[in-house]
Structure formats: structure tokens, C-alpha cells
Amino acid sequence: MGLFRHSNRQRTERSKTIYARFQLAYTAVDFAASLAFVAGSVMYMLNVSETTVIWTYLVGSVLFATKPTLRISREIKLYHMGHVDHLAQKAEP
């Protein structure tokens, strides 16, 4: 029952819902980060203010750094859900 196990994602309907929501957030962040880098590249080619281009790349970088944060947060949440469910099953008479 460790982290990054497929079984944690499929344990209950609640865990499936949480997994799906995190995947949606992960995809949205990935898409936004990609857009920021494409926008920064286009602005660079169009000779837009260097400061604006740098900030656009920085935003993209922060968004890309958010991706592993979302992933580990999801796995920890799913792990704790399974751990609590496991303890609850042990406590039942």
C-alpha cells in the first residue's frame, strides 16, 4: 500500500474521483505551462519587451514545477485514504 500504486487509485469511488480531479488539474497546468512557453517564444520573435518575455517564461516554469507537486500531493492523499480505510476495516468487529 505504498505511494504511486495503481491500486490506490482504484480502491473506492471516492479515490477514483480524487484521482480524476487531480488528473484534470495536472492536465490544465500542463496545458497552461505549454501555452506560456509558446507565448514567450512568439513574443521573443516579435521583439516584445524583454521583461515581458522573461516573466512569461517564469510563469511557464512555475507551472511546470507545479506538476510534480500535484502528482505527489495526489499520491499522498490517496495513500492516506487507503491507510484510514484499512484501519477502519481492522476496527470493525
Features:
single chain; 93 residues; mainly alpha; 85% helix
Mean pLDDT: 85
Structural class: mainly alpha
Largest sheet: none
Structural Rg: 19 Å
Q: Please give the alpha-carbon distance between the first and last residues.
A: 23 Å
Q: Please, how many domains?
A: 1
How many β-strands, per DSSP? 0
Strand composition percent: under 5%
Coarse shape: elongated
Low-pLDDT sequence parts: none
> How many helix segments?
3
Q: What letter string, H or E per element, gives the SSE order?
A: HHH
Fraction of helical residues = over 70%
Describe the protein.
The chain is an all-alpha fold and 93 residues long. The protein has one domain (6-91). The chain has helices at residues 6-9, 13-45, 50-91. The chain starts with 5 loop residues before the first helix and ends with a helix. The model has no long low-confidence stretch (mean pLDDT 85).
